[in-house]
Amino acid sequence: MTERESWREGDRAYRKVTLHTPKGDLTATYMQEDGLFTTWATEHFLKDLDDLEKWLSIPYEPSPVDVSHILAERERLGDRGIMVVDVGDPICTMAELFEFGEFLIQTSITPKAILYAMDVLIERDLAILKEALEKGAGPAWRLVGPEYGTPPYLPVEAFRMFVADYDRRIIELIHEHGGYVRLHSHGRVRDLLPVFIEMGADGTDPVEAPPSGDVELAEAKRIAGNALALFGNLQLRDLEYLEPDEIERIVVKCMDAAKAGGGYAIMPTASPISAPLSDRTRDNYLRF
C-alpha cells in the first residue's frame, strides 16, 4: 500500500510518499521549485540496509507494459527523426533509492547486499524491456544510470561490477531485437570508453570535456574509433551564459575535433530546466 501527501511552502511544492511494506514503512520526500522543471529528493526511501530489506520484501507484481504512447509518437515523428526511448539500469534504481553518498558507502562496505538487490532488479528490468521490445518500442534506446558508477565515485573495476555486468545484458537484449543503445554518462569517462565498447554500446553521451569531464573530444574520438558513436560535448552552461559568437567558436571546435569520418553528433550535454528560456539561452540555441 502506498500513501501520498502534497503541500506547498512558498514557491516550492513538496510530495511525501510512504510505502507500507511487510517489514515496515519506507518514506521519501520530493521538492520542486516553481519555474524549474526538475525534482529534488530531500528524503530517500532507503537510509540503511534495514530499509533495503524492507524494500526487497515488497511483493513484486508486474503490470502489462504499455508502449502505445511510444508507437503514437514514432508515427507522428515519421521520417523527420529517430525515436529514442530511455531505459534505466539497476544502478540507476539503486543509487536513487539511497542518498547518493550513502549508496557509495554501501557499495564499499556491503557490496554483496547491493549486488543482491541489483540481481533482483536486472531480472525485472529485462522482463519489462523484453515485453516493450516485442511490442515494437524503439528502435534507439538511451541507457540511463552508468554515471552513478563512474570515477571518482567508483573505480573502473567497480564500474565493471556494478554497471557493466548488468548493462551488457540490457544491451544484448536490445540488439537481439534490432535496436541500438546510446549509453548516457556524465562525468569522467576517459578510462571507461573502452569498457563501453566492451559492453557493446553503439554510442555514448554527453562526452564532457574538462572541467566537467576528463577527456577532450578529439581524444575521445581517437579512443572510440569506429566502434562507438559520440554525442554531445556542447555544455549547457555555455548555452546559458556565453555570448552567441563564443557559442559559434565552440561549435566549430567540436566539429573540427570529431566530424571527420562520421560517428559524432553534436548536442548539448543537458536540457534547460528553467522556463521560460532566457533571451541569452534562446539566442545561443539559435546560433548553435
Strand adjacency order, main sheet: 5-6-7-8-9-10
Which sheet architecture does the biggest sheet show? 6 strands, parallel
Task: Give average pLDDT, whole number.
Answer: 97
CATH topology of the largest domain: TIM Barrel
Percent in strands: 15-25%
Would you report the number of β strands? 10
Which percent bin holds the helix content?
40-55%
Radius of gyration: 20 Å
| Number of self-contained structural domains | 2
The CATH first-level class of the largest domain comes to Alpha Beta
Q: In DSSP terms, counting alpha (H) and pi (I) runs of 4 or more, how many helices?
A: 11
| CATH architecture designation of the largest domain | Alpha-Beta Barrel
Shape assignment: globular
Please write the string of helix (H) and strand (E) elements: EEEEHHEHHHEHEHEHEHHEH
Low-confidence runs? none
Could you state the oligomeric state of the chains shown? Answer: single chain
Coarse structural class: alpha/beta
What distance lies between the first and last C-alpha atoms, to the nearest angstrom? 48 Å
